[in-house]
TrEMBL record:
Chain segments annotated as coiled-coil in the UniProt record: none
Highest rank taxon of the organism: Bacteria
PROSITE patterns per the UniProt record, alphabetical: ALDEHYDE_DEHYDR_GLU
Annotated Aldehyde dehydrogenase domain residues: 4-442
InterPro entries recorded: Ald_DH/histidinol_DH, Ald_DH_C, Ald_DH_CS_GLU, Ald_DH_N, Aldehyde_DH_dom, Aldehyde_DH_NAD(P)
SUPFAM superfamilies: ALDH-like
Protein name, as recorded: Aldehyde dehydrogenase
Natural source organism: Pseudomonas laurylsulfatiphila
Length: 450
């Protein structure tokens, strides 16, 4: 079977050895076979859209159905379809210059790829990772998060319905299973999750010298320039922050606003939330926090900030009472210039809280960003070419969206990944294909004259 409840290290190793044996016993998958494997995943998303949405709703307590459809069905569906359309080109040997003879790079599958996904957008992570790994011709083992049991169980059943265990397998279980999974001698391991867990994953993989792609996170900053279309910028930041109630690894984590525009930012943010979320408590488009632990973590940030005298501004257009909310929903809240020593400015927030940091000069903004670990994403709003160039050259982040938020992460033609503590390596599109392939250098020497 493809899914193992409470698997042991021996169970996981058995599946791995079965997949490796199947990989070694035959020629690599042809283009046509890889496309057929991708088609099976496409069929799962097309045929089980509502099942996926309902499973996610059950796991979150409440989750925006529209967001679930877009992020967990339509987005990975587009990824799989684009992968299939471009795969023939990716698979072609890449010619290289040689002083003598003929040289090229030939991309070949690695063997067995392990994928460990997080809870916040589980369907997207599973199927986007699967797209790259299958496109490269690998067998795949997947460990989804135990924090989304309904979705993880559904994914396991769906995968099992269309793939043999030696093609794609799903392993279910808690942290102990995840630890055992990451200690296996895969040919490549893709992990998405918290930086703190990523360190343990890297240590476990090092025992077998397994190459690792880590997609972690961090505090992704947003800069609103004095040259920006201010109202449009604020609207994009606020709406982006409230998608999935801020539970996205590339959500804007804190925002730099010109000192003289802080009050205007607050006013526009209130108007935006009033327009798009006139109510929150029972609004089907406003998502709950995933579980009690994360709900209490976010409430702890607010309590600490309040005790420190930080001004907290709730974006609650309907003035609803959330004290008895059974669904772990949190009112979107702006925090005005919280101190850098507070936890809300130390941790990745992963919730609908948005610190506002007023600034005078761009140089001080860049200095503050560079004083922190390198983030997964950075956002700049402005129409000053010199200023934009300065931000791009003087800061280092996994990726950047200019005059928008998060869009670079869903652009398949761009590599997606972090740098430093926000991750290592990248995937998506051709970069995912290459991450899950071995780039074999080949040289055919020039024949000696007779």
């Amino acid at each position: 079977m493809s899914a193992i409840e409470s698997s042991t290290s021996c169970d996981i190793r058995t599946i791995l050895e079965k997949q490796r044996a199947a990989f070694q016993d035959r020629e690599p998958y042809t283009l046509e076979e890889r496309c057929e494997l991708l088609d099976r995943a496409i069929g799962l998303l097309v045929n089980h859209e509502q099942d996926i949405i309902e499973a996610l709703t059950a796991d979150f307590g409440h989750r925006s159905p529209g967001f679930s459809k877009g992020s967990e069905v339509l987005s990975p569906l587009a990824t799989l379809q684009q992968t299939k359309a471009e795969l023939a080109e990716w698979m072609r040997p890449e010619q290289r210059r040689a002083r003598a003879g003929e040289a090229w790079v030939q991309y070949q599958p690695l063997g067995v790829v392990g994928i460990v996904t997080a809870w916040n957008v589980p369907g997207y992570m599973v199927f986007s990772g699967l797209a790259g790994a299958l496109a490269a011709g690998n067998r795949v083992m997947i460990k989804p998060s135990e924090f989304t049991p309904h979705t993880s169980d559904l994914i396991a059943r769906l995968i099992r319905s269309v793939y043999a265990e030696d093609e794609v397998a799903v392993v279910l279980g808690g942290a102990d299973v995840g630890q055992a999974f990451c200690g296996q001698p895969f040919d490549h391991l893709l992990f998405t999750g918290a930086t703190s867990i990523g360190k343990h994953v890297l240590r476990a993989a090092a025992e077998n010298l397994v190459p690792v792609t880590l997609e972690l996170g961090g505090k992704s900053p947003t800069i609103i320039s004095r040259s920006a279309n201010f109202n449009e910028a604020v609207a994009k930041v606020v709406i982006g922050k409230l998608l999935n109630a801020g539970q996205l690894c590339v959500a804007p984590d804190y925002v730099f606003v010109p000192q003289e525009s802080v009050d205007a930012f607050i006013g526009v943010a209130k108007a935006v939330v009033a327009k798009f979320f006139p109510t929150l408590k029972d609004n089907p488009d406003y998502t709950s926090i995933i579980n009690t632990r994360h709900f209490e973590r976010l409430q702890g940030y607010l309590s600490e900030a309040r005790a420190a005298g930080v001004e907290l501004i709730e974006l609650n257009a309907g003035a609803e009472d959330f004290s008895q909310s059974p669904l772990n929903k949190i009112v979107p809240t702006l925090l005005c210039n919280p101190g850098d020593d507070l936890q809300v400015m130390q941790d990745e927030i992963f919730g609908p809280l948005l610190p506002i940091k007023p600034y005078e000069t761009l140089s001080e903004v860049i200095a503050q960003i560079n004083a922190r670990p390198r983030p997964l994403a950075l956002y700049y709003f402005g129409n000053d070419a010199a200023e934009e160039a300065l931000v791009l050259t003087r800061t280092c982040s996994g990726g950047v969206t200019l005059n928008g938020v998060m869009s670079h992460a869903s652009t398949e033609g761009l590599p997606f990944g972090g740098v430093g503590q926000s991750g290592m390596g990248a995937y998506h599109g051709i970069d995912g294909f290459r991450t899950f392939s071995h780039a074999k250098a080949v040289l055919r020497t020039a024949a000696n004259p007779a």
